[in-house]
Structures are given as structure tokens and as C-alpha cells.
């Protein structure tokens, strides 16, 4: 493991991928499962590379590895759903992580407005139309236009990813604004 406090070298050059992963691991992210396709072609993948891009128009982006089984499913269906996971869905997050992922039929789900799979127990979801694709090194950056959304009425805490591990929020304190 590369120590985070390691000095930045004076000579510029390619950054080691493991070092980048270690340093970026200090940024806490939410955990999502991206779903797409329909019927036997439905698939999902755990992703923490998600961000909101724009409110007008409503745009978000996700990144999928070029070898992801989900990438061709999204490209063929023309859309995807971002499912925000709750703390109790950690097993779902692990089930959809890695090369051999769970099948959609193995988790409670329902169809979205455009018949894409939505994880029924998710904290919230965004259904997106695939708006653009960009090369992102070993990943494809997918820009999605949000076409529908939902958040069940219950209050649950989100599942987060920090330093290579799934975590729970450990503190209910709200920090004062500055």
C-alpha cells in the first residue's frame, strides 16, 4: 500500500494506478447499482463512479469499465437506472460487484416508466436516457438524461464506500454551515 503522506515527486510522469486508487479511496462516495436491459437481457453492476452533472437539463454521469458486462446492455437499451443503495443493501452491492454478478431476478425489482429494472428496496432511483458516451481511459463515461425518478417515503441511511470498504454513516450530527 502506498502511504498517503508520500511526498509528490518533482519529476512528472504516469501516476501508478494503485496509488491513485488508494488516494481516491479517501473520498467517501455513495453506492449505486446501475441496472439496464429487459427480460433475459437485464443486468446490473455496482458502481460508485456516479455524479450529478446538470439540473437544466437534468443530466448525470456514470463510468463503466470497457469490459463491463453491463456496458453493451446499456448501449443496446439506450438507457440505465441509477439505484441508490441503503445500508441494509450491502449484500446487494457485493452481489452486483465483480465479474460474476447477481442476476436481476435474484433481487426484488420492478419495471421503470420505460421498462428498465429498478431495485424495489433502493433508497431512490433515477431513470436515464443514454445521451452521450465518452472515452475515459479504461472506462466509458456515460452521460444520462434523467427522464424519471423516485424515492420511497421511508427514511433509511445510505450505504457508502470509503477506503475500499462498504460503510455505514456513523454519526447523526449535522455540521453547521459556514
In short, what is this structure?
With 178 residues, the chain is mainly beta. The chain is built from three helices and twelve strands.
What does this structure look like?
The structure is a single chain. The mean pLDDT is about 85. The protein is about 10% helix and about 40% strand. The chain contains three helices and twelve strands, in the order αβββββαβαββββββ.
Give keywords.
mainly beta, Flavin reductase family protein, 12% helix, EC 1.-.-.-, oxidoreductase, single chain, 178 residues, Pnp Oxidase, Chain A, globular, oxidoreductase activity, three-stranded antiparallel β-sheet, seven-stranded antiparallel β-sheet
Any idea what the CATH architecture is?
A: Roll
Tally of contiguous helical segments:
3
Oligomer state of the chains in this structure: single chain
Order of helices and strands: HEEEEEHEHEEEEEE
Beta-strand share of residues: 35-45%
Distance between the termini: 35 Å
The helix/strand class is: mainly beta
- CATH level 4 superfamily: Electron Transport, Fmn-binding Protein, Chain A
CATH fold label = Pnp Oxidase, Chain A
Outline the low-pLDDT stretches: none
> CATH first level: which class?
Mainly Beta
What is the percent of helical residues?
Answer: 10-25%
The main pleated sheet reads as:
7 strands, antiparallel
Shape: globular
Q: Could you tell me the radius of gyration in angstroms?
A: 17 Å
Number of domains: 1
Strands in their spatial order, largest beta sheet:
3-2-6-9-10-5-4
The overall pLDDT average reads: 86
Q: How many beta-strand segments?
A: 12
